[in-house]
Design brief:
Bound molecules: adenosine-5'-diphosphate
Helix content: 25-40%
Number of helices: 16
Largest sheet: 9 strands, mixed
Structural class: alpha/beta
Radius of gyration: 23 Å
CATH class of the largest domain: Alpha Beta
Low-confidence stretches: none
CATH topology of the largest domain: Rossmann fold
Number of domains: 2
Mean pLDDT: 97
Oligomer: single chain
Distance between the termini: 13 Å
CATH superfamily of the largest domain: Glycogen Phosphorylase B
Length: about 475
């Protein structure tokens, strides 16, 4: 099959979270299964664009409302990714360092979608399936089926994957004219709650909707920022497919970002060497159990609970544990985390920012990884933690529920039900006593590292889904 993925992120070209990891891996595994898979994303002017060489394969004009935009389609000169990657360069909109959080994000990503379809429209032939990821590509299924200009794609199956339903990309009807012309009869297909909403449009128009875990699919039917009714209505065409991880990139035996590589055979020594490197870097004590957190510092991830949990445990159980936090996000959480550093120096440290290399070292060197998420569509961190022999401490929600089983149920993680200070603290206390039993602790590490969460299964599930739509 000829598969096209369209996304705002694709690792290593651009990653802000799990979306980047997924779109950087799924096409690769689909190629390994014998298909042709390509990814299309915007060309951001960040580190990746500075460090790689690109060649232009097409130049065109995209129209957004009354404005024309010139765009270029770029390809890597030396592509070793394992799949084709095309980057759409739109001067004025994407020649910026960051992926998101600009005032004109709706216009940026709508122009990206229009430019993508304009380019595909003038190529010979059509793909067998177009797979769109998250709201930044949410108008594609609508435009392919209802905009006359793109009539050639009317019968091409579209898949839309919800990686995160919290971000919907909605804007007012005053900007309806930004979309390419279509019959007003179809206005309802871009609308939700009296606004233009790309996420809702994709859920309505895509041939199939997928979520990144089965439990998340159940949860969004009763909790998804006002879109629950739509999710329930479209349930029959929706399916939850659990994400995999790229075991080529995330492999403690070969990961170049670690202090020391290790496998199941030398897990104790390997993890200790990485823990010592980590503790040296952050002035922590390697003899204490090390609790870590990696991720966006937002309420969705339960990150707002961390400062109080760290304060209470460091104050009332001093010297019993160490904490290390890596993340960035809401200012008040960042400030609260930074504030604690002075008081608990030697037992706690945080790195506010994004650091891919450090994240790998943390997965390898930590004893425990905290994920107290309120919402977790799949969660990749716990899967990386398992692969690196780090015990995940998770709230039973979304993909965390689907992938982590509590040690009390013959599992390998520590689970709690509420996103509350009490529940997380209780789990940390359980973890500390578990840590003392070195034999059991090492046995669990071995068990975790053997679990197969590679993309093989999920990539096959997606192919079967595409094939079921063949016409
Ligand atoms: P999200 O909801 O943010 O997409 P996921 O669990 O699906 O969460 O994926 C998070 C990905 O982003 C993981 O690869 C994780 O290691 C990475 N990540 C998150 N925050 C940071 C950070 N501050 N520095 C480095 N990597 C990060």
């Amino acid at each position: 099959m000829k598969i096209i993925h369209i996304s705002a992120e694709c690792y290593p070209a651009a990653k802000a979270g799990g979306l980047g990891d997924v779109v950087g891996a799924l096409p690769k595994y689909q190629v390994l299964l014998g298909h042709s898979a390509a990814a299309i994303m915007p060309f951001y002017h960040g580190k990746y664009s500075r460090e790689n060489e690109f060649t232009s394969v097409y130049s065109g004009i995209a129209r957004l409302g009354h404005t024309n935009f010139a765009f270029n389609v770029l390809e890597l000169v030396k592509n070793t990714l394992g799949f084709e990657l095309f980057l759409i360069d739109i001067p004025g909109l994407f020649d910026r360092e960051n992926i998101y959080s600009y005032h004109d994000d709706d216009e940026r990503f709508l122009t990206f979608q229009i430019a993508t379809l304009n380019w595909l429209n003038q190529l010979e032939g059509v793909p067998d399936v177009v797979h769109c990821h998250d709201q930044q590509t949410g108008f594609i299924p609508f435009m392919m089926s209802k905009v006359r200009e793109y009539g050639k794609f009317e019968h091409i199956p579209t898949i839309f994957t919800i990686h995160n339903g919290q971000y919907q990309g909605q804007f007012g009807f005053d900007k309806l004219y930004h979309l390419p012309p279509f019959h007003s009869y179809f206005n309802g297909l871009v609308e939700w709650n009296h606004q233009i909403n790309p996420l809702a449009s994709a859920i309505k128009c895509a041939w199939r909707v997928t979520t990144v875990s089965p439990t998340y699919l159940d949860e969004i039917g009763y909790s998804m920022k006002g879109m629950e009714e739509l999710l329930r209505k479209e349930r029959s065409k929706s399916i939850g497919i659990l994400n995999g991880i790229d075991t080529g990139v995330w492999n403690p035996e070969t990961d170049p970002m670690l202090e020391k590589n290790y496998s199941i055979k030398n897990i104790s020594g390997g993890k200790s060497a990485n823990k010592e490197a980590l503790c040296r870097q952050f002035g922590l004590d390697p003899s204490k159990p090390l609790f870590t957190f990696i991720g966006r510092l937002v309420g969705e991830k339960g990150a707002d609970l961390l400062p109080e949990i760290i304060y209470n445990l460091s104050k009332f159980n001093p010297g019993e544990q160490n904490f290390l936090i890596l993340g960035s996000g809401e200012k008040h959480i960042q400030n609260a985390l930074l504030h604690l550093e002075h008081e608990f120096k030697g037992n706690y440290c945080s790195y506010i920012g994004y650091n891919e290399k450090l994240s790998h070292l943390i997965y390898a060197g930590a004893d425990f990884l905290l994920m107290p998420s309120r919402v977790e569509p799949c969660g990749l961190n716990q899967l990386y933690a398992l692969r690196y022999g780090t015990v995940p401490i998770v709230r039973r929600t979304g993909g965390l529920r689907d992938t982590v089983l509590d040690i009390g149920d013959n599992g390998f993680g520590i689970c709690h039900d509420q996103c509350s200070i009490f529940d997380v603290t209780h789990s940390i206390q359980r973890a500390k006593s578990f840590y003392k039993n070195k034999k059991a602790f090492n046995a669990i590490r071995k068990q975790m590292m053997q679990i197969d969460h590679s993309w093989n299964k999920a990539a096959t599930d997606y192919i079967q889904l595409y094939q079921s739509l063949k016409i």
